[in-house]
């Protein structure tokens, strides 16, 4: 299979490193230094965009708005390929890509539930995908064999659980499992007013705030693109915090024990699957 990856940042380059061991991989990045490094490292064969015409699969590894702009500018290179993207928000972007893509191609979206706090080609590593969750989101332009191809992609990169869902389901889930958790980590760090926090932290604080070392440009875009669903999840979390605050303030010992017990039992079910 011939694959062309658009964007060789953390995720795009990590894909290239993993896929190039079993497939012919081409790639392009707007930063020439990045493209030169990818060529030198041997993870792409060429950065010539004209080679998109010869590829079976095109992977869009840019920010959602940039994915759309790329397709608008280079759709003349598309004729028969399967198009996919790995963006963190889906509904609005999929609608726009369905409008812009030529009818001769197919399009299936996906989302690798993996990453790092740091961004850029330098930090790329295909090992971040090992046994990570992998979400597949069919679109109106998805054809019968596309899901099989994307599952093969996930298997090649050593992903674990593969789940199919709609774009709406994806954005609702991601608002909770990914975007809200980043909001929580950032808010916890920014709420700190203590002089000796660094000297008094243990695993709890470090684990909760690891993702606060954030790519501020990318995550701002993701928050705003999915803001309605994210705000809904933020409201639910605020309500739960208010409940916990009231239980502590009123010395409701048994109620607190029940809350903590329910949380532990629910979280333990994650580890049993």
From TrEMBL:
Q: Which Gene3D superfamilies match?
A: 6-phosphogluconate dehydrogenase C-terminal like domain (1.10.3660.10), NAD(P)-binding Rossmann-like Domain (3.40.50.720)
Offer one example of a GO biological process linked to this entry.
Answer: tyrosine biosynthetic process
Q: Which Pfam families match?
A: PDH_C, PDH_N
The source's superkingdom equals: Bacteria
Which EC number applies?
A: 1.3.1.12
- Signal peptide: which range, if any? none
Q: Which GO terms describe its molecular function?
A: NAD+ binding; prephenate dehydrogenase (NAD+) activity; prephenate dehydrogenase (NADP+) activity
Q: Which UniProt keywords apply?
A: Coiled coil, Oxidoreductase
Query: Would I find Oxidoreductase among this entry's keywords?
Result: yes
| Keyword Oxidoreductase among record annotations | yes
Q: Which segments does the entry list as coiled coil?
A: 224-273
Q: Where is the Prephenate/arogenate dehydrogenase domain?
A: 1-273
Protein family = Belongs to the prephenate/arogenate dehydrogenase family.
Instruction: Kindly provide the name given to this protein in its UniProt entry.
Output: Prephenate dehydrogenase
Species whose genome carries this gene? Alteracholeplasma palmae (strain ATCC 49389 / J233)
